[in-house]
Amino acid sequence: MVLISIGLLASLYFFAPRFKKSAATEANKSVEKPSITSASIIDGARISLPSEQKISLLSIENQLVSAKSVADSIRVYRNLAKFWEDSAHRIEPYLYYTYSAALLENSEKSLTFAAQLMVSNLIAPDAPPAIQTWMAGNAKVLLEKALVINPNNDSAKVNLGACYLFGNISDNPMQGILKVKEVVDKNPHNTYGQLILALGGKKSGQYDKAIERFVLLLKDEPNNIEAMVNLAECYELTNQNVLAIEWYTKVKQLVNIPEAKDALDKRIKLLKK
Questions:
Q1: Long-range contacts for 198-207 (Cβ within 8 Å, ≥24 apart)?
Q2: Contacts of 147 (CB under 8 A, 6+ apart)
Q3: What is the pLDDT of residues 17-53, one digit of tens each?
Q4: Cα separation of 80 and 93, whole Å?
Q5: Exposure string for 71-106, b = 16+ CB within 10 A, e = fewer
Q6: Which residues lie closer than 8 Å to 127 by C-beta, 6 or more apart?
Q7: SS (H, E, C) the chain
Q8: What sign for the dihedral angle of Cα 223, 173, 238, 12?
C-alpha cells in the first residue's frame, strides 16, 4: 500500500508503543476470528523472557499469593506493570496489569488512566486485530465503571465510543459513533472527540468526512501531528496531491527525527511525479 511508510512513521515516532508478536498472537494467525485472552497474552509474553527475568517475574507474582489486603494486591499489580514496561518492554502485559490495578482501586482517576492507555494503543496503526479486540473489551469494562462514578466524564464517553469504532466488539459501529457524537455535538471544540470521529471516518473509507473533522480539529490544535499526518493521507487517498504535499511539508517542519524527515521527503517526491 502506498501509504504504509507514512502510517508506520506516525506510529513509530509520534504515537503509541509498537507491538511485538507474542506467541499467543502467532498461534492465532490462521484463525479467521482470533480470540486472545489475558491469560494467553501473559503466558505468551512469559515464554519469551530470558531466564533471569523469568525469576524476577516469578518473585513478583508470588507476592500476589501473600497479599493480605486490596491495597497489597494493587501494589503488586503495579509492580508487575512496571516490570513489563521497564524491564521486559512488552506493552500488552503492562496494559493488563495496569487494568487489573485500576479495577481493584476502582477510582475514576485510575479507571480512566488505564482505559486511556488501552485506547491509545487500540487506535495505533500497527495493532493486531485480535489485540485490538482484547484491548477494547478491557477498556470498555473500565470506562463503564468510570461512567458510573462520573456520568459526565466526556473523555470516558469518547473513549468508550472508540472501543466500538476500532475494537471490533460490535457489528454495529454506529454504537461508537453515537457515543462520540454526543460529546462533539455538545462541544465541537472537543478535539479528542473530533480526532476519534475523523480516524473512524478514515478507517471506514469516508475520507471527505474525515477531512472535515481533521481540518476542524487543526483549527483548534494547529500543531497536532497525528491529525496532520492523517489529513495528508486522506488527501492523498482522494487524489488531492497538492493538498497532501502541503500537509506532509508542514509535518516535516515540525519533526526533528532524521528518519521521519527522510520518509516524508520520499512521500512528497512521489506525489510530485
A1: 198/227, 198/230, 199/123, 199/165, 199/166, 199/230, 200/162, 200/165, 200/166, 200/173, 200/176, 202/230, 202/233, 202/234, 203/165, 203/166, 204/173, 207/234, 207/237, 207/238
A2: 153, 156, 157, 160
A3: 444 444 444 434 433 445 789 999 999 999 999 999 9
A4: 8
A5: eebbebbbbbbebbbeebebbbbbbbbbbbbbbebe
A6: 16, 19, 121, 135
A7: CCCHHHHHHHHHHCCCCCCCCCHHHHHCCCCCCCCCCHHHHHHHHHHCCCHHHHHHHHHHHHHHHHCCCHHHHHHHHHHHHHHHHHHCCCHHHHHHHHHHHHHHHCCHHHHHHHHHHHHHHHCCCCCCHHHHHHHHHHHHHHHHHHHHHCCCCHHHHHHHHHHHHHCCCCCCCHHHHHHHHHHHHHCCCCHHHHHHHHHHHHHCCCHHHHHHHHHHHHHHCCCCHHHHHHHHHHHHHCCCHHHHHHHHHHHHHHCCCHHHHHHHHHHHHHHHC
A8: positive
pLDDT at 9 over 70: no
Q: The C-alpha cell of 7 is what?
A: 502510517
Tell me which amino acid residue 200 is: G
pTM for the structure as a whole: 0.84
pLDDT in tens, 105-119: 999 999 999 999 999
Cα separation, 210 vs 11, in Å, equals 19
